[in-house]
Design goal:
Blueprint lengths: L15 H8 L4 H7 L4 H7 L2 H13 L17 H14 L2 E6 L8 E6 L4 E8 L7 E11 L5 E5 L13 E7 L4 E6 L5 E3 L6 E3 L7 H6 L7 H16 L6 E5 L13 E6 L5 E8 L5 E6 L13 E3 L5 E2 L4 H8 L2 E3 L10 E3 L12 E3 L5 E9 L1 H4 L13 E7 L4 E5 L4 E7 L1 E2 L2 E2 L2 E2 L5
Parallel strand pairs: 4-25, 16-22
Antiparallel strand pairs: 1-2, 1-10, 2-3, 3-4, 4-5, 5-6, 6-7, 7-10, 8-9, 11-12, 11-22, 12-13, 13-14, 14-19, 15-19, 17-18, 19-20, 20-21, 21-22, 23-24
Length: 433
Amino acid sequence: MANNENDACSFTDFPEDIQVCILSFLGPPVIATLACTSKRLGSLCASDSKLWLSMCERRWGSKTRITEWGRGKGIISYKHLYNTLHCWEEDLLGFWRRIGPGTRSPSLLFFEWGPSFVSASRVSPSRSVTYGVTKTPFLWMSLSEEGHVVSFLDSDGRPGAQNNELVAVDVSFMGKTHFVVEEKDSRGSVSGDDCGDDVMMESGSPPEIYQHFANRRSPGGDRWRRQRRREKERLARRKWEPQHFVKIVYCSPTPARPLQGLWKGICDDMSLAFYLVVYDDIGGIACRRIGDPPERFSGCAPVFWTSNATFLESPFSPEEESLYDSRIHLRPLQPGNEVLEQFPLSDGEVVNQIQQFRLSDNVVNRILHISSSYDLVVPDLAGTMNPRSAEGRIWQYQNGTFGFGFLSDNFVVDMKHIVHNGCIVDTVNSSAD
């Protein structure tokens, strides 16, 4: 049978709703190219309420309520909404950690989708639930009716905070892996009463040259002194000091990097701690504790590192098997089927109602030699530690988790996942703490 070219069906022959459905699978660059092919397709690609709404619904409809953004007034452009949500999904969602000091600022943040906003929660170890992770509100980012980004912060992390208790902030990105949260009025204007003109000044003191010449004999001295006084008063009224956060790009392990990501484990003081394990570009591994520094460093060392990520495969030598079998796994009280032997605590232990147990349900799959970074985090210990006592091991289990310990003690810190498939596991209500 001969092919009849007249029977061929072009894309423009489909009904408009079918065209919109097909085009919603494409991205903005392809849509822009397609819009240049004909006037009809150009009009369809520019249809905000049809194509761009369909593109938003297809990509984020299962994660957030598209029509409720911009307060649900239907004024905001869906093309603008698409571009904004795309940037936030690529650059914002996930874990961030604080850099620099901060008494009120959380050390670990987790950004996720909300009904009509993106929210960041404080993530911290639970003090009352075994391996529990506490999430408390911290930051909300959304769009106004005009499409402007609006951000509010709850400095105290209280669930159900009222709008008048929130602090309006600016979230300023410095590249894709660094942002700053600062109160909106931290950059303002101060006016001079006597001169009648507005003098713009950033937060801080006036330039040094003005401080030098603005003395009692200079005509503008009183004006600058009043301006400095108003600036100090305004800074004193601030509810939030600027804080910097950097993104934790790799939060989960991969087949090539099985130890990578965020982990949680019980320290020798029986408190739950968060750890971040990262691989470098030359094959090394480093672990650091996430959060505020503890009052005292634990005997199992909060940090480890190695420049050689080559594992020892089974069968292991008798010395390696003895090194692991003789150790105590640091775990809180577990159900009866996990406890094989109980070790009573002495009165001098800091643990309350928590026991140490030797467990045998973790089958070691591979072993990695590591070193303690005690002398790096505690400068006074530099050069005083026995090199042998700084050695340690990572025991990788068959279930993909691992434990680590050092020759200077007799413990194993067993690590568990904090995040799985992009979601935090073992979350507990903040009221439980």
